[in-house]
Amino acid sequence: MAANTKTSRKVARYAVPVAVAGVAAATVAMVPAFANAGGPDLPKVTAQQLIEKIAASDVEQLSGTAKISTDLGLPKLASGLLGGGGVTGGSANPEDKVAQLANGTHTLRVAADGEDRQKLTFLDGKDEYSLIHNGDDVWGYDSKSNEVFHEKATPSEKAAGKGVGKEHKTGDRMNASPQKLAEEILAAAGPTTDVSVGETAQVAGRDAYQLVLKPKQAGSTVGSVQIAVDAKNGVPLRVQLLSAQGGKPIVDAGFTKVDFAKPSADTFTFTPPKGAKVTEGADGHGKGDKDGAFKALESFPGLDGLAGGPGGKGDVKVLGEGWATIARIDSGAGKSLKDLENDKNAPKEAKQFLDSLGDKVGGSFGEGRVMSTRLFNVLVTDDGKVYAGAVTKDALVKAAEANK
């Protein structure tokens, strides 16, 4: 799959960031299949030929409108704990805006001119939020609050040839789109996935093939990933992540309108408006990233003992591979779930949190609780271990029994 390296260099880099893209880390075994006549009448292609078409695409410039819908089925309480990570740079901070894409439906204007110039604008009624990458600078601007986030490559980074878009977290957050999602899925591909060509389709008024990736392994919550690929230029136009249980897509990210002409240079020019509050990214960049999950628990009344402590305490082990991958985390907690349940002095908020975790389960590992979403499931055992992955509840229980 060496051609995928070429894809990451050539496919236009822009912007519908989705936190769950990594879970769709497929693995590709080439299963010959042919597009049928469910949509536009296009010449037949194999899965291998379609992947090669994506890799050969030299499109680096585009503009248009994209829509992303995400339905993870998160409980309200858990959604609040897992989302965001803190607004370290005020309301213009890109990390907070990107986190909002993990739930609901959002419309965005997009533009790209190679690796060094991209722009994404969140459309929300009269208010807009823009994220602009132009050379060494990344800007975030929130029109409602008149706040600006700015990050710039340092002299040492520029001397080493490392621009914002290559090394800085903010630039990385822009580097995901229908195109980029497809790249990441295909780049991680290997022997645990069947790959075929599905029905043809029309996306943003353009004829497209659909590359379909399905897990070979049992126990995944993912039914398939469908990538709509422009029949003329090989650019991925839409990525859909479908649940093994059916229903509407878990993630549906795609263009509703797209133009492959070069955007004007002033599209990527930004000057902070008069009176705007400007926060430099280096001042607070990365704060809360590493230990955010621990801090979320520790800030919740009565749950500080469950966190076990931040800063890398506790072991993380990866179980399985491909679609069946499970992360096993030993929190090093000083207090178990059962301790909290039996604590008569525990705050009611802590008990409410336990109830939000979902069903009680048991096995040779002991007992625990499972929090379920349409994509991720998490098992928290009474002895402070956490098992998490895009797998079913039964798969987590089996993993806990085999690795107690």
Could you explain the architecture of this structure?
With 404 residues, the chain is an alpha+beta fold. Helix content is 24%, strand content 33%. The protein is built from 14 helices and 21 strands. Strands 1, 2, 4, 5, 6, 7, 8, 9, 10, 11, 12, 13, 14 and 15 form a 14-stranded mixed beta sheet that branches. Strands 16-17-21-20-19-18 form a six-stranded antiparallel beta sheet, with helices on both faces. A hairpin with a 2-residue loop joins strand 18 (359-363) and strand 19 (366-372).
Cα separation of the termini: 37 Å
What's the total count of β strands? 21
Oligomer, anyone? single chain
Whole-number mean pLDDT: 74
Query: Approximately what portion of the residues adopt beta-strand conformation?
Result: 25-35%
Percent of residues in helical segments? 10-25%
Main sheet summary: 14 strands, mixed
- Overall structural class, as computed from helix and strand content, comes to alpha+beta
Number of helices: 14
Low-confidence stretches: 1-37, 77-90, 162-173, 283-312
Shape: globular
Rg computed from alpha carbons, rounded to a whole number of angstroms: 22 Å
Please specify the SSE layout and strand pairing.
Blueprint: H1 3-10, E1 29-30, H2 47-56, E2 61-70, H3 76-82, E3 88-91, H4 94-99, E4 104-113, E5 117-124, E6 127-134, E7 137-142, E8 147-152, H5 155-159, H6 164-167, H7 169-174, H8 178-187, E9 193-197, E10 201-203, E11 206-215, E12 222-230, E13 236-243, E14 251-259, E15 277-280, H9 281-284, H10 292-298, H11 304-307, E16 316-319, E17 326-330, H12 337-342, H13 348-356, E18 359-363, E19 366-372, E20 377-381, E21 385-389, H14 393-402
